[in-house]
Amino acid sequence: MLRFAGPATVALLLVWAPLTAQSPEPSPASSTLRLGALLDTLASRSPRLEAARAVAAAAAARVDEASTLPDPMVQLGVMNVGLPDLNADMPASMAPSVQLMQRFPFPGTLGLRGDVAEATHRMAEASAEETWWSLRRETSDLFYDLYSFEGRLAVMRETLGLLESFRTVARALYAAGEGAQTDVLRADVEVVRMDGEIRTMEAMRTAAAARLNGLLDRPADTPIPSPVLDPLPSTIPDGDTLEAWAWDSRPLLRRDRTAVDRADLGTDLARKTIWPDFTVGVTYGQRDRGLGTERMGSAVIGFSLPVHAGSRQYAAREEARASLQRARADLSASRAEVESRIGVLMADLETAGTLIDLYRTGILPEAHATVESALSSYRVGGVDFMTLVDAQMSANRYESELVDLFADYGRAVAGLESTVGRALPRTTSILAPAPEQR
Q: Could you tell me the residue range of the domain that residue 304 belongs to?
């Protein structure tokens, strides 16, 4: 049986009509934030990155030092003077006396020390690059967190407006005797609950912005514009390709490979420590015997004696071998971790991509159709007021979940790029957010 609409029902339809109409495209934001520009700012402002680069520069400065001969030693004095009156008139006396001494490490040792220092320098450079990729991933995660918070806040604020309109209608229906008091109470509760969720989400957005400002060496309260997503790749290279890229490009793996090379050089250097270092010296002296100045010279050569080889040189060899084993184990562990991380992120990308497609083509259209069906049924008395509210709330929740899925996909892309140490190619196959979430 058809029901005639009373005044309160007409008010509901007047409120509902503009809310269910197609929403116009949002006007462009006056200020937006894109990930590429954010990463450029990070590269120029990050104190952690600057510190890592300074460590690499310091290691570079030590390369020449390690491969340079020790400084020669000059000694000035007198020789063979008589005691106790320090008489220099003795036949063998020389006053003054000048001695020049130079120590020469065993052949090959100096070159190996330079090679070790150069390897240390390359490791520091790789560590600086690894710091960059780590900061890039951390910054990207915060960017996508902010995108998620912004998207959820937009849906929540829209939902709050709907709930406030529902509450107005529920009160009008109740005042006209066409609605139940429970509808009014339920609408009040939903409005208060949504307002609380908005405040919580705003606090989370503020905290994420403060952490991002910290990475950029800016005051915590520096305003952060609304993030805008750039298109993301929808096709990812296979696992074998990504692992090969990581082996070639990931600074962590390059650093660990260099650590193995450095430890191998260290074993060669330790084997040479048993051989003696040589010291060469020349001495010049002169004396005056009353018949003119007599000049004399002498030369000396010396070498070190490894009398404590058991506790020094041989122990250094054992230490070098243990360091080499550790470096090889670290490389194996890092490679296994990288390959595992690639597998996890590829699974995350596949899951997020599948769900994005499912939400776009199935869940959201069905949710919107459910809202339209509930509205039509409510107009003829087929469903109660809160069924209509629940249908709209479900549709808005799915909109929020789609925003989160795009953020999850972006985080996985950023994580995969940091894991392999290079940006993924942006081909013609891209994944972009829906227009209402740009």
A: 72-104+279-308
